[in-house]
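I hope you will forgive my troubling you with a question about protein structure. You will find the record immediately after this paragraph.
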Amino acid sequence: MSGIQYLVCLCTLLMTQSGFVYSEFQFIERYEGDSVVFPCAVQQRHPSPFSVYLKRSWVNPGDVLFKLTKEEYNVHNDHDKKRIRVSGDPSSHSLNVTISELTVNDTDRYYCEFVVNNPVSEDERIPGKTEFVLIVSADAPESADSWLVETCAEDSVVLPCLPAYEDGLAVEGVILKRQRSGAPVEVLYNSKHHHHSKRFLLTSVPGPSSITYNLTLQHLQPEDSGMYSCQLLQHGRPDRNTSLGRRVFFVSVQGAQCFCSSSTTLLYALSAAVVILLLLLLLLLGFVGICKFRRSERPRPQVSVYEEMHAFSQKRVPHHQDVEYENKNCFVKKSCPENHYESPTGNLWPRNES
């Protein structure tokens, strides 16, 4: 059983024993330095909630924040004040809580609890529609998808920009990060701040399900070699991650050695062209040989129409003779006309009376 499955089973068991029932569970995986957004919502009701809590109950049970309607929110831990932001109000039955600069210690079970005024008895506490299980892991650059890109000086490289997580949030821009030979990760380009740049060109291509964003690095030099990662900036999720993204490109820009690489490529291209020409020559020789073989074959002599009719008539002669013989002997019971030339009688030849 994997670690994630174990956490899911353990969390389900804890929820069952604690008596809480939620309509939806959301399991979220993040790395250290990332951000997470908890969308808190409750069903429409009257009266509306006048306050909300964000709580965690698993590793470190307790309140994370509390917010009264039309008032500023209060964070329980002073260390988390700079990391937590709230947008929305509990009176609208929904709000978003963003926690940035995540650490491994933020791994826990989170849920929202809305408070509704009850004039008769104690205020009613209603859990939100969704419960969140947040799992924060340490940076794992070895698990990133790495690609090697080789190019020459003054050439260009096109890098695809991917979302940090597949959650379908709206795209607000792109950010390009680079790391060179043990140096810390640096931000080279942010579309929110660099609208026009001669070295970076942002393009978008509509796709069947979403829009694909590509960032072109132009006029590269050998000192630009390093590991690059282009990520999408999504709405409600500020990028404060100090590491590269899920897909890393190692861009190697060659200077004087690029001529040798180009010569090798040209040699491969010429070799391929020679092989293709040889194949075409073999096909041409085969075609010529087939044509000569067909010409060497003698055509069959054609039989004239007269010979065919003569042969056909010879085949039918015995049949006609049989017919005449049958008529002559009168096998069929029909009136057979008398032949006066074979047995003359009558006026032409008087009968002998004996």
